[in-house]
Amino acid sequence: MLSRTKTVGSKGEIVIPKSIREETGLKPKQKVEIISTRDRILIIPLVNNISELRGLFGKGGVKNIKKIEEIMFDVMGS
User: Fold this and answer.
1) What φ, ψ does residue 13 adopt, rounded to 5°?
2) CA distance 67 to 53
């Protein structure tokens, strides 16, 4: 996991650093889901094309994928 400190611009914009865009596979003009929970903001890249999911499940298949609730719990630490 990468972490960077950024400043929110006057219109609320934030530039996502290149290293984080590369790690997450975020592309220009790609849509993202923004979720606000108490004191956290989550930015989740959305899939434009089903082929972008290739390799997501790995060899173990669906049983190795966490539920969104588990992922949010991991991220939020609550």
Assistant:
1) -80, 150
2) 16
H or E element that contains 4: none
Share the mean pLDDT of the chain. 76
Q: What's the CA gap between 2 and 24, in Å, rounded?
A: 10
CA dist., res. 72 & res. 78, Å (int): 9
pLDDT, greater one: 10 or 63: 10
Q: Are strands 32-37 and 40-45 parallel, antiparallel or unpaired?
A: antiparallel
Task: Enumerate helices (H) and strands (E) in the chain, giving the number of each.
Answer: 2, 2
What tens digit of pLDDT does each residue of 49-59 get? 666 566 655 66
pTM for this structure?
0.53
